[in-house]
Amino acid sequence: MKLGDGVEQAIHSVLVLAGLSDTGALSAAALAEFHGVSTSYLLKHLQALAGAGILQSVPGPKGGYRLSRDPDKITLLDIVLAVEGSEPAFRCAEIRKRGPSPLAAHFFKSPCAVNAAMLKAEQAYRAELRKVTIADLGKPKDPALGRAIAQRVCAFLDLNERNRSQAS
Amino acid sequence: MKLGDGVEQAIHSVLVLAGLSDTGALSAAALAEFHGVSTSYLLKHLQALAGAGILQSVPGPKGGYRLSRDPDKITLLDIVLAVEGSEPAFRCAEIRKRGPSPLAAHFFKSPCAVNAAMLKAEQAYRAELRKVTIADLGKPKDPALGRAIAQRVCAFLDLNERNRSQAS
Question: A64: helix, coil or strand?
Fold first, then answer.
């Protein structure tokens, strides 16, 4: 089982966007520079986040992305599903229906026990991801780390935040 | 997030192998025929299960595969890790260390909060998979389904089980 690299990039991008002013925005290029990743690859994930209603895409030459709701309303599950899709990791191909002597058709009304057990485990995974919000992740337990992250992000936003004139 | 098709094939193959006598074995070709899947693809997963100590590979022209321990000692987690590898689904690339102004090196002694949260969710997933054994899955709640599966598997094993002479 593997999650794409896009999940890590998407989560960290949303964390940075949580530091913007209400009318601010950051370009995909600025977010990519901040994280040292490919702009085109990150753009794909930012678009997925916008498609899922987590980010708002601000059009125009001074446009970019901002959060579309408060950081305490965005969970890790929201981001993982936006980037990876909402299909379960285990996709039952109903192989019990194949082969030379499959079971009688009426047995297939109930889901296969293998599928049910795999989906139950995935529900537990999703429930854990649903408990963690971007607001939680933005408050490190170590105050020194919190200050260092805030300094780093604020210095970057001072240079790169767009639409500042509309905000003031 | 996606698990490969091999997981479903591997779980159902182990379930069929649980019906063998102690000295019996089934060939990869027979297991592939039973499930209507590619022998070469299934073989790769059977070898992974053998490498993980879940199956025993019986060499020779009458060889094949059998379980290497009792079905109540084989969990879904054992099979998923054997087929998919034991690496976590979320692989932290430490992108917080990249970009033009990374945090000071001493902060990286503690794991990134994003990584910690993603791994915690995966632990919940694995804990659920660890609760379910092949013995559990071999006992359907519906007695009619249980009888139908037993008939289907027994008829197949009657035709395909190897090393019967050594067992008798």
Answer: strand
